[in-house]
Amino acid sequence: MNTHDDAARSARPGRRPAPDDPSDRARAYASVSLWLATSGDDLVAADPLAGDREVGVAIVGAGFTGLWTAYYLAEARPDLRIAIVEREIAGFGASGRNGGWASALFPSSLATLARDADRDEALRQHSAMRASVDEVIRAAAEAGIDARLAKGGTVTLARTSTQLERARLEVEEARAWGRGEDDLVLLDAEAARAHINAAGVLGGTYTPDCAAVHPGRLVRGLVRAVRERGVRVHELTPATRIVPHRVETSRGVLTAAHVIRATEGYTPGLPGHGRDVVPVHSLIIATAPLPAGIWDEIGLARRETFTDGRHLIIYGQRTADDRIVFGGRGAPYRLGSSTRLDPRAAARVHAKLHRTLVDLLPVLRDVEVTHAWGGALGIARDWHASVGLDPDTGMGWAGGYVGDGVTTTNLAGRTLRDLVLGEDTGLTTLPWVGHRSPRWEPEPVRWLGVNAGLRAMSAADAEERATGRDSLAARAMAPFMGGH
After folding, report:
1. Cα(332)–Cα(342) distance, integer angstroms
2. What is the pTM of this model?
3. Is 366 exposed, middle or buried (0-12, 13-18, 19+ CB in 10 A)?
4. pLDDT tens digits for 138-147?
5. What is the rounded CA–CA span in Å between residue 207 and residue 335?
6. Is residue 72 a contact partner of residue 100, using CB atoms and an 8 Å limit?
7. Could you give the CA distance from residue 284 to residue 298 in angstroms, rounded to a whole number?
8. Rounded CA separation 400/437 (Å)
9. How far separated are the first and last CA of the chain, in Å rounded?
């Protein structure tokens, strides 16, 4: 793979910059991902907590969940004292490392949601996710954030007969739920290639409900926006323990009526939360900006996001500066829910991603890969994202997005606003509100199970290539993966 070695080495998920000099630390943060490097922000950490404070709402984690929650609370109640504590800088975690899809994807299927509630409630959750894509766009514009957003939708390519049959069944199921062509449409080969001229395409599906986004610009824009609205964002302030009405940090204690946990893949680092979610790594590469001639051949004229029908997830987008950003799963889970990734494992996955990208788009064979990075996403035991607030303790939470968090965090932030303010709204009664996922098994059972699942998805794709039939391994794993 033709990469800059420094980019690959510096992009170790979970890497925490060590320098004490602020400018050195800022340069280390810029090396975390393409998104932070090109965020338009100086990435200098600001306002570490200086002693004990009393606030109305204390939020742990300055990623999208925490920042959207603070943003909507500050808009609704400018007099409310809100503080966020963050171990590094805002956007250091998944919010600054993801693939840049603001999509309507939700990790649990409609059938799973309907089993928990009913059909109408499941569809209401789906509608809320679709509307949230537009809300991200609206709110970013309102806050004056140029997040390089383009709502081009998502094309899912079918490149084998098995994938094409799954695409047909997915559209049939969508129609059975009352979802029309404005939501999901089946593509033949010509229509699919009109979006992206990939190799071996037989057809696919298209949904308009996704916007390509520069997540680094969005998250760093949000931290500026909430500070402008009076929210204190205490960077370089690690939370060491959270309990009702109290957030303990290495720099002091926040006392609050409400404490919101917004830590996603980093949640297991908090005492008492080690089995709430598992951090699973997603790895990403980015090409150099591509010339117009290559884009004429590839397509993606509306900056559609793209994937294909394989089981081990891949995802890509055309950036506003004409790069391809391309990522996927496959990195092993580390014992003890570590958010640090073995650099050798990262190098293997980055190399495999490059091979996959070239297989998909052969015109990129000799194009330089300039950045390689990754980060930890959070998976609940039942693959079910949730948001909630315990009125007795004042403890709130949101997470378990399984990598579909750029939009879901926005819905979580608005929902937490209503829950904190005690308002009964259409958001507070959605079926994901108050859902409690079972805890993950203790180690080493957790390590064995998660990595067995990752290997099974890789094996499922190989099985389908060899047999031309739907994978038995994938069907066996479906009950453990949100009903998909």
Report:
1. 9
2. 0.92
3. exposed
4. 999 999 999 9
5. 37
6. no
7. 20
8. 9
9. 33
